[in-house]
Amino acid sequence: MKLLLVMFACMLPVLGFGPVQQSPAAGTQSAPAVPGADVVNPVKPTAASQAEAKKIYSWDCAMCHGDNGNGKGDLAVSEKLTLPDYREAAALKGVTDGQMFYAIRHGLGQMPPEDPQRANDETVWNLVIYLRSLSKPPAP
């Protein structure tokens, strides 16, 4: 019986009942940086790849981030989420392409990961380029 209790206690963290990691309190050390900060985007955009990225964005991202990247998609509004406005250059200032890739591919916070069956790595890199393009003024 003791052996069963010990085995059960050892399995608690694996089953998700172990200690919960909490965000640091205000004014203390921040959470670890997103991996991949130094990874450089290997993709060169084309008109076709950006059209595909825009389509994927409209399917998978716009519901929260808004059709134009303003952070006010239907789901964000209904759930009262505060999301960055990607139309503002400051929203992505200091965020590397590698960090954006990681966040899109693996998810971050409440944001789910991009489905690898829908978007391969090249498409995710093109999504990074597309997101950055939202803050640029339209061509004359």
TrEMBL record:
InterPro entries linked: Cyt_c-like_dom (IPR009056), Cyt_c-like_dom_sf (IPR036909)
Superkingdom of origin: Bacteria
Signal peptide: 1-25
Cytochrome c domain residues: 48-135
GO molecular function: electron transfer activity; heme binding; metal ion binding
UniProt cross-references to SUPFAM superfamilies, sorted A to Z: Cytochrome c (SSF46626)
Keywords assigned: Heme, Iron, Metal-binding, Signal
Organism per entry: Acidobacterium capsulatum (strain ATCC 51196 / DSM 11244 / BCRC 80197 / JCM 7670 / NBRC 15755 / NCIMB 13165 / 161)
Name of one Pfam family that matches: Cytochrome_CBB3
Protein name: Putative cytochrome c family protein
